[in-house]
Amino acid sequence: MITAEQKPIPEIIQYIAPYGKILLVGCNECVTVCAAGGRKEVGLLASALHLNSMKQGKTIDIKEITLERQCDPEYVEELTPYIDGVDAVVSMACGCGVQTIAGRYKKTPVFPAVNTRFMGASLGQGVWAERCKGCGDCVLGITGGICPVARCSKHLFNGPCGGTSNGQCEIDPDVDCAWRLIWERLKELGMEDRYEDLMNAKDWRPGGAGGPGKIIREDLA
Amino acid sequence: MNTESRLEKILASGELAVTSECGPPRGARPEKVREKAALLKDHVDGINVTDNQTAMVRMSSFAAGVIIKQMGLDPIIQMVARDRNRLAMQSDIIGAYAFGINTMLCLSGDHAKFGDHPMAQGVFDIDSVQMINMVRRMRDEEVFQGGAKIDGAPKMFIGAAANPFADPFELRVMRLAKKVKAGVDFIQTQCIFNLDKFEQWMKGVTDRGLDEKVHILAGITPMKSVGMARYMKNKVPGMDIPDAVIKRLEGVSKEQQPEEGIKMAIESIERIKQIKGVHGFHIMAIEWEEKVPQIVEQAGLYPRPKV
Amino acid sequence: MENFEPEIVAFCCHYCAYTAADMAGSKRISYPSNVKIIRVPCTGKVDAIHLMKALEKGADGVYVAGCLAGDCHFKNGNVRAEARVNRVKKILTELGWEPERVAMVNMSAGMGEYFAQTAREFTETIRKLGPGPGKFAGTNDKAAS
């Protein structure tokens, strides 16, 4: 899923300072799972913004709503009845959600309340780690199911580099060396000889180097 | 012979080669490059010019390499995958070759986290193995990485690094094999302090006959003090400093430690000379270039052969 | 401000603090009437939003009273509660409110005296801090418009 973290509250306060009526929009997908922008976090942020305006002896009007999926125009349409009654939208979805709202409602400013971080998997309660860079040409089939693009700090394709210490990455002893993991896994699978296959220079186009990505499915579009 | 490289000629002659290195200055001070290179000039066959080493901004290895070349010496320019994409690499390689630089070293590079621009985006468009392959094809097939023909192909003698001490150890010979497959001509190893482990690695190398396909130059670094030894042991990633090294330096007075460090370096060279497959030495005297001539002389590697 | 009487909300676990409050009552150990007790089945049930809403609606201070370390009836509800209290402390700090307005305390069912002491001390802390966020709601709206 896409992971995100709430922005520092002062930054959010700065965005909305000129406005009195706010539509605070959460998303029921990824950001709910990573506890950054679901219904719960919408409630908590709304409350925090109320406590902030109380400090100045003011009141702020916040309408809370959490959409099923903020990156989908069909669900974003649900904001239509409220949009004219507010001065600004604060979105707690990933960047995709923020932009879907901005694209639909041209006259109302929309501000992000979270920083979108990475595509990650859950390692346990409250812990998420990056697992995919969306490079557009998956190599997991030849690297034993461990991604060198997302998990090697230098995304080396023929690693490991010389900085591995006790099996950990040179950048941080808490980060596993991806190539140590790949090697161990290839051994477990009895595929050690795969390691010496040269992986050629990557074509980065499908992963973003070719300009903003777009998928068109003729059978669905 | 593939290139005009002096290092290639020395290695082809069967003599032990000697290289050293010079870190370019952190500012536009060409005289500093000249000073360092002058210290090494009669005692080595090639001078490595580091490329933003430890991810600190310095004069480019290309520019410092040109300065050294203009002194009539032989620079080995280092190039890290961290700072350039394949376009920038290839244009710099052509540019360097146009100035007569004919020997280079392909590296991944230290992560930007360690340097003075930890906020920088690392490029890592291609890795060091892919870089070797690219430079070899530029030379042998006269094509760019993208496939187009080069009009005036750069003929580089291609080097790379190997760290026999980083783990997983069992992968380290295989990693070298990959670089050989990609087309590397010579290897400069990480500083060797754990000689037993180096011998073990070299045995793996010769067992597979890799020493017939690539020239291995053993990395030698003299310790300036016990403090430096401790720092390298604890802080430098991928470094293997046995306790015996630290104990030996501790055993002499602070004033005598530099001398002891040099003695140890010379002893290492003497022992490594006996190892099958080692074709030379790469002496990295970190901010201590003036000691390189002494080490080369006392290790019986002087005078350097004329080729 | 001189006659400021803090309003305190205490979320008390049914298995410990709530019973301790009961014991304080039956032993006639007095504690300030400022403290309004809300019984919860476990402090693990108390979410950050409950603490925030209490402050928003006019409480000057809020605390969560759960079981002693290792004694939670539901394994680790008290640990979770403490993490949430800390999160609210962080939010209050970011907003420029005093983090001392929320607190986590731990006790067993038999600690009636400690319950009363905690209630007294927390009330005094809040009395010193002065009125909480909810007391300021809208006081300045007219001036602003």
Distance between the termini of chain A: 24 Å
What is the structural class of chain C? alpha/beta
CATH architecture of chain C: 3-Layer(aba) Sandwich
CATH homologous group name of the largest domain in chain A: Response regulator
Give helix % range of chain C. 40-55%
Radius of gyration of chain A: 22 Å
The CA-CA distance between the termini of chain C, in Å, is 26 Å
The CATH architecture designation of the largest domain in chain A is 3-Layer(aba) Sandwich
Q: Which term fits the overall shape of chain A?
A: elongated
Tell me the Rg of chain C in angstroms: 16 Å
The CATH topology of the largest domain in chain A corresponds to Rossmann fold
- Specify the CATH class of the largest domain in chain A: Alpha Beta
- What is the subunit organization of this protein? heterotrimer
Instruction: Output the helix-strand order of chain C.
Output: EHEHEHEHH
Q: How many distinct domains of chain C?
A: 1
Mean pLDDT of chain C: 94
Query: What is the averaged pLDDT score of chain A?
Result: 96
Question: What is the strand arrangement across the widest sheet of chain C?
Answer: 2-1-3-4
Main sheet summary of chain C: 4 strands, parallel
Look at the helices and sheets of chain A and give the structural class. alpha/beta
